[in-house]
Amino acid sequence: MTEVIYDGTYEGWLTAVFEIYEYKFSDIVFAKKETSGTLLFADSHWVITDISKAKRVLDGLKKRLSAGGLASMYNAFLSEVPQIEETMLQFTKHVLANAKNVEDDFTNNAVWSLKKAARLTGKESHRMEAFVRFKLTKDQLYYAIIEPDCDVLPLIENHFKKRYADQRWLIYDTKRKYGIYYDLENVSVIELQFNSQTFSSKHLTEICDEKEEFFQNLWRRYFSSVNIESRKNMKLHVQHMPKRYWKNLIEKIPTLNK
Description:
single chain, 14% strand
């Protein structure tokens, strides 16, 4: 068995696929950035991301997949479901071994598993587009904290760039420790280190604009007023807005401890 270690990027994974074919590795386990430490007798192969190698693999896939199929591969990668890299490798082998398009060949386990992972990411990205709640800081930066199940920031940045093109904003993923920042012209990826006091009420009061609390309370009152008590269906509500998102939703913060 060979443990293939790459840098965690999509380009890095594509480079790894190229080298798996190049060195004829057969029994593969992927690891990100460091050895997993769980495979006692496995050989380790370290991958250095090479854009030219990644492009050759991608070009081969483009000849056999539709644009939707390629997007599904990328979305599946962002899903971060267990063993998704191994599933994608099996999918890639199936694609490259056939002259015709096999992306709808659901009799193949890898095809079906990849499709499910891609749908999971797509669903999560749509939820984030709906559930992001910005707060305004004293230096007029709108910021939002999210903690999605999948790595959706690459998928939602265009949505927010178009929708909030006239204001600076930052969306930070606390689970993956990075964010996307829009400066009125470009979106860039940033990494931030927060201490334990970053999200305390005192700290947020210090950095937020003086009118921010007023607008948050206004939003809570609006949210409360449009909810008809007699028509409340909590089961359906949680289905569409799972509780794991509530801690970052302004309208839900007052009810978190109930």
